[in-house]
Amino acid sequence: MMLRVDRIRKDFPILDTGIIYLDNAASSLTPEPVIERMLSFYREYRANVERGVHRLSQRATHEMEEARREIQRFISASAREEIIFTKNATEGINAVARGLRWKRGDHIVTTLIEHHSNFIPWQRLAQDCGVRLVLVRASREGEISLDDFERAVSDQTKLVAVTHVSNVLGCVLPVKEVVRIAHEHGALVLVDGAQSVPHMPVSVRKLGCDFLVFSGHKMLGPTGVGVLYARADALAELDPLAIGGGTIDEVSSKGYKLAKPPEGFEAGTPPIAETIGLAEAVRYLRTHGMTAIAAHERKLTRELYDGLSSIERVEIYGPPPSKRTGIVAFNVEGLGPHDVAATLDNAAKIMVRSGHHCAMPLHREVLNRPQGSVRASVYLYNKKEEIERLISVVEEISRSLA
Ligand SMILES: Cc1ncc(COP(=O)(O)O)c(C=O)c1O
Prior knowledge:
- The chain is α/β, with parallel strands linked by helices.
- The chain folds into 2 domains: 130 residues, Aspartate Aminotransferase, domain 1, CATH 3.90.1150.10; 254 residues, Aspartate Aminotransferase, domain 2, CATH 3.40.640.
- Helix content is 39%, strand content 17%.
- The strands form 4 sheets. A 7-stranded mixed β-sheet has the order 2-8-7-6-5-3-4, sandwiched between helices. It has a 4-stranded antiparallel β-sheet with strand order 11-12-15-14, covered by helices on one side. A two-stranded parallel sheet has the order 1-13.
- Strand 6, helix 8 and strand 7 form a beta-alpha-beta unit.
- Bound molecules: pyridoxal-5'-phosphate.
- Pyridoxal-5'-phosphate (PLP) binds next to helix 4.
- Pyridoxal-5'-phosphate binds next to helix 4.
């Protein structure tokens, strides 16, 4: 099924302002049905969840529970208990870093292409808890050999933390195989799905991972809400990051008894409107179809990649289009990435990201581009003409440097 992009674009009035939004890997736009759904919480049943018997609280609780079920279905999790709402992907990763019970000498395996959110929490554990961080390198294309993973993972490995899709190279990592290797050694696997869940069908059942994190704001939802999926038996190994109101079964002057997950992991009043908004974003994505969205993005990415690679002085990072999602990072030789991004905005209202994209080890130690890169990233509402415009402005920039 082809996406009906012109119809989809009508749900994003911000696009009528003449902008070309190609910064989707940083954060996506939000369609009207999602905004409306959040507004209906504020207009019709604005109350706290879980704690009230009155009708507004009951309705809010019901809607939030429905949201949890929606997310559960979206990633094919087995039970509602496995879906923990967080602030964002970063908080989910920190919840695992802080929540697992580490001992000196445990190993964590991760890669050099990770976003800082899936890197520095592990560095901190290495500094604070005597855990050893084992790094898997990548080729400039982002190719990570499974042999390297085989060598890195051992019986000391407690956790393998790996991104599903690189936020710079756009490459898709062979997570299923990584999970197989890790589980052979009794290690848990955390998958950073911040760049995969919004753009392709993702099933935790198929991946077999123990933890998966992602953020609402990158998948048409609002800011302020994310998800930590934790497989039921992996949950048993996790202590909550924060406790307080909403997380207990009983409290007395002598102590407390924590509630079972997910409630025991969601301290304080949750982001109610945001959670409901995220579920609506998921419904929107499902209506259009994750397979169709992925196919649409692949087509645009091929055009983007082919167009940019034919321009003199342009260097693209990562694998060929057949092996990447909708992210293309590049540089124009002789110009810094921020200058290129500013020119794209000033000349044609094209929004792209520039800098290191929270992936300094990758830019410095793998790509040897400490200045960072320019990153264009597509989503379901982008169209061919927008890609052509980006290519023609980059061409002009390149020509002006001749
Ligand atoms: C691969 C990856 N992981 C983690 C994150 C962090 O997401 P958030 O800032 O929403 O926590 C990002 C955001 O850019 C990302 O691209």
